[in-house]
Request: fold
Amino acid sequence: MPENSIHVQSLTKRFGETLALDDVSFDVARGELFGFIGPDGAGKTTLFRILTTLLLADKGICNVEGLDVVKDYRKIRRISGYMPGKFSLYQDLTVEENLKFFATIFGTTIRENYSLVKDIYQQIEPFKNRKAGKLSGGMKQKLALSCAMIHKPEVLFLDEPTTGVDAVSRLEFWQMLNRLKESGITILVSTPYMDEAGQCDRVALMQNGRIMTISTPNEVIRNYPLSLFSVKSGDIYQLLSELRLYPGVHSVYAFGQSAHVSFNDRNIEKEILSDFLKKNHHESVSITPIEATIEDCFMELMNTPAKEKTT
Amino acid sequence: MPTPVNIITVRNLVKKFGSFIANDHLTFEVKKGEIFGFLGANGAGKTTAIKILCGLSYPTSGEVSVAGFDIYSRREQVKKNIGYMSQRFSLYDDLTVFENIRFYGGIYGLRKQEINSRAHALMQRLGFEDARNKLIRDIPLGWKQKLAFSVAILHNPKIVFLDEPTGGVDPITRRQFWDMIYEAAHDGITVFVTTHYMDEAEYCDRVSIMVDGKISALDTPENLKLKFDAPSMNEVFIKLARA
Reply:
């Protein structure tokens, strides 16, 4: 058995003028919950479609459980579960019929692998006679995951399972994935929500077809190169524009009702910044040094290549 | 300060589909110039309510007035005075940037000259002059969202409805988008917005949270966090939606 579940090296894919994947390389260990974090257009779906043997790369190496995505595509399809970003089950089949269909296609039965999907499927079982097209978003998501798992795959590919899903259902979905992980299955999941990075063992932050960094979520945060403060005052809009004028400021971004301000300089005096804001009519200013979030890190990484070009 | 005028008034709004109650006695107001966050779990009834507010569907019962017009009797006036943008549908992929602007301007009855001058100003402000004749499908998602928003307010509506406008957008563009929202609100346009990003809920002046067809909380983000003893709107939301 190969050491890694997934091995990808120098993978490139072009659509006309668009470079969808630009020299992407990474490995995923067996049993790992690995996240691809990035906005639309980052290349997440293209990558998943190549890994699931649905799309051919222009160049590069791509192995799933030691199997080559081109040569061994049939074998890969047998051992992979894939939940596409777009709901792709049969809308006019019932919940149970959909699950049965996927089990049959893979030469198995619901009963044989029921224990694997039980935790998730039980939540929608009361609606098993309802047509899949009539399910709510959260229920569709659970059915799609059940169908992707009913043949007991070794690797699970989940493309944006939480997009458009509310905060509560998102949290529940990740709890589900973490329980699923205990069965030893390798899980690759993509998401545009930065705050979900913390749920993964390791993450790849992606933008415009490139992987900007690969690390554990904690390591990504530790590698944030700047000193960061959370600043709060009454009017956030005005606060943002004034902070951008402060000497030595590297970046200013809104985070809810506070602003995150970063400096290259490690020795920023809170008091001087506070005086500056008070002079600009901000009465009750609070300034707190903080640890970066994944979103701070992502935005800093987004800015990095642009800076390299200009110097 | 003068008393703020209510631009949306909703009293006991009920919408039923058969025996299912999608909106269960909603009562709220939105003030002129406000950024109003309309949050809720999937299936809580947000889309149903928005369709009614936009004049696309009639309530089963209740009073609804939008931009000063009664939703039952003056529906066409309502439509003329609002703008709408969603993540799913906003611009035509196979029309160019300028053609999209001209199309929307035409729909809202702007004269040709006016469309041209507003289109010019809009593209200049967004830095899109070079993209004027590009097809929408060929421009980056972040640009599309900004353009879609600008087009939604091209006719200077009193209210703009934004239905998950920032889904899937990168974090920097998402913030630039909110800068545009602030600007529009500053110019007096009322913003009615839904989102699944809870940090964006904190950019709103007031937020309502729908659970199972009812509004279960409505206040400023600051007050909601105090009331539910939660450090962020994310936790407020989770507490409410799980209750």
